Amino acid sequence: MASDLSENKVELEVAALGPDAVLPVTIVRPSRGWTSLDLREFWEFRELLGFLVWRDLKVRYKQTVLGVAWVVLQPFFTMLVFTAVFGKLVRMPSDGVPYALFSLTGLVPWMFFAHGLSQVSNSVVSNQELVRKVYFPRLALPLSAVLSDLVDLALSFAMLLCVMAFFSLVPNPKILLLPLLVALAIVTALGTGLWLAALNVRYRDVRHIVPFLTQIWLFLTPVAYPSSLLGEPWRTLYGLNPMAGVVEGFRWALLGTATAPGPLIAVSATVAAVVLLGGIAFFRRTETSFADVI
Amino acid sequence: MPRMAIRAEGLSKRYRYGSVLNAYPTLRESITAAASRLFGTMSAAASRRDVERQRSFWALRDVSFEVEQGEALGIIGNNGAGKSTLLKILSRITTPTEGRAEIHGRIGSLLEVGTGFHPELTGRENVFLNGAILGMKRAEIISRFDEIVDFAEIERFIDTPVKFYSSGMYLRLAFAVAAHLDPEIMIVDEVLAVGDAAFQKKCLGKMGSVTGRGRTILFVSHNMAVIRSLCTRAILIHDGALAADGPAGETISTYLAMLEKSATTSLGERAARAGGRARLVRVDVSAGGQEPAHVLMTGQSARLSFQVEPVRRGTSCSFTILDPLGQPVTYFDSAERGQQDSVAAGAGSCFRCEIDEITLVPGRYRIDVSVYTDGELQDHVEAAAFLDIQQGMLRGRLVQREPQYGSVIMDHRWISPV
User: Fold this and answer.
1) Contact criterion met (CB below 8 Å) for A116 and A186
2) B174 forms bridges with which residues in the sheet?
């Protein structure tokens, strides 16, 4: 029941503790069914979210010299292998652009997604100390996991622009649409990751499913091959995989590939939104038992 | 008109757990189990196994109490009684199975120091991180930063990664952050057990000043002396239920009386043990080789005998004598071999400790016993026995003081001018 909240918070002004001081009241109750999103509480904890992202970034880049380079090298070397295997050996069509560029434009958002998904699905378990000892909206954990990956994305995107320059390709104004596509990738990673993160708390073997899931997903996404291989309506239906929308959108915006993937992206966005809402609901429903089970 | 800070009504918490082997059921197992149930292919034995796996226990049952603003409430009880569960519920880390609580004001929970500290980050960075985790705003942390570092006494090392800190520095910094939290209600779970005596005193002082400013404190501890000095009221949790609620002194007495009663339960029946293979079976106290007696005198000799089963090579026995407030007075360990110790093969399975002169001041002391095998804890019994020390003579000097002036008397002589 939507009206049955697990916590009921009345936000009042906190003054010095005199006899007239008016204080925030919290009611602690057993959780029943579906809980509301309580965005207001989330807003209060926004600083914590910032600190968690800051922590992840600091820790990730503090020690490894290779750490920064790795973010850029991974898609680059994968692109080289793909070009050798799919581009040269298999002679995969690539929508009229050099295959190397074709695959790299797909790999950059893909790797952001894949890494984000793996981080999000493990975010609760890897912070179990916090979950067991401190109160805060647990959604901050998966959210911070995917946000800290944005820095990685920026770095690998910079590398992509360099490669584009190498092929004498200048970005056109469609590049302004990229943030929307990145948002779609975030929504997909977060949406899927929330389901996995919540399940992972109780069933620890879920963590092992993720690499496998990501691998299969890679082949189901037009990273190594173009979706134009499919005729309509199959191409639009392909959008049921939200990452298909992201990857094709990236290619269209950056490389100007012939077929505009409008309907494909529309389907992707819808699917991603549904998965996200479901993920949030599921996560909120199970989060009250995290501290007991983790 | 005193305002209410917390009102708890009928708080209960049930935990379900399966067999130890199934601590983390895998997804595969759960799906298989669900599928077999669905298709009715489960045998009777298997379904019984499943029911057993759904065993549950009530960590808390129907706990109700009120805390006024500005009050310092102590929460005492045995290990495993449910104190930490209660704190977790009030801190909103876990939700109650039944019941409800009304909380007026922000809560700052200190269930463990250093939560969220990351070893790669510097002390400065961890202060901000930990402060944010505990609920402080960035502006608050900045304004209190110098105070925090000062309290922790680690100014020189504040910009070194925490992984290089000694454990003492780590704890001091962690506690310093938490101590400057300044919420309306503070919940503290035995974290004062860390740190040296000087630092503990500083922490207590800080907490005392917190109540002075109209803040409320809930304090869990095993240290009765601290509870008595810091708290005005105390509640006793026993086996998940509220066993006492009243002025701190009274509740402490109730608790001690409860411990006494459990001491008279034969050791074989007692449940809360460490669960190893060797067990303490019996404790005998006598005054220098005569009939068993629990009443001894200062200055007299005493013999304590601990029967442990089974005894192997590497088994050792240790015990602590504690004063009525739960403060340890002295500790004995059979593994610490000295010149006067000996091994008597014919002693059966008894560890005997012979004390030539009791240097304890008159009073009622309790004995906690532990059994180890090769340094690994096998059994631990709190209040395994009690010692009633009566007035006696130590080297010709009559000793009749109460333990509040210290529990130990030392042999000495005065040379006075008049």
Assistant:
1) yes
2) none
Taking the Cβ of residue B292 and every Cβ of chain A, the question of whether any pair is shorter than 8 Å is answered with no
Is there a single domain that holds both residue B109 and residue B161?
Answer: yes
B120:A204 CB<8 A = no
In a domain, B106, yes or no: yes
- Cα(B383)–Cα(B369) distance, rounded to whole angstroms? 8
For residue B235, list its beta bridge partners.
Answer: B75, B245
DSSP state of B94: S
Q: What number is the ipTM of this complex?
A: 0.79
Asked whether the predicted pLDDT for residue B342 surpasses 70, the reply is yes
What pLDDT score was predicted for residue A179?
A: 92
**How much of chain A is helix, strand and coil, in % rounded to 5?**
70, 0, 25
Q: Structure tokens of B83?
A: 């104190």
The answer to whether A30 and B97 have CB atoms below 8 angstroms apart is yes
| pLDDT tens-digit series, residues A40-87 | 777 778 888 999 999 988 888 776 667 678 888 889 999 999 999 988
Instruction: Name the token pair of B69.
Output: 């603003």
Are the beta carbons of A102 and A94 closer than 8 angstroms? yes
B237 and B132 inside one domain: yes
- What is the CATH classification number for the domain harbouring B327? 2.70.50.60
Quote the domain boundaries for residue B102.
60-260
Contacts of B403 (CB under 8 A, 6+ apart): B323, B324, B361, B362, B363
CB contact under 8 A, B93 and A206: no
Reported as a single tens digit per residue, the pLDDT across B308-331 is 888 888 888 899 998 877 788 899
Which residue shows structure tokens 């959780």?
A31
Question: Choosing among A49, A135, A212, A289, which should be mutated to test the B contact, i.e. which has the most B CBs within 10 A?
Answer: A135
Output the pTM of the full model.
0.74
Mean pLDDT of B239-244: 90
Q: What is the pLDDT of residues B267-286, one digit of tens each?
A: 666 655 666 778 888 888 88
In this complex, which of A55, A135, A202 lies closest to B92 when CB atoms are compared? A135
Q: In which residue are the tokens 């007692």 written?
A: B270
Structure tokens at B202: 């500083």
Residue B192 near residue B204, CB atoms below 8 Å: yes
What CA–CA distance (Å, rounded) separates A150 from B325?
A: 56
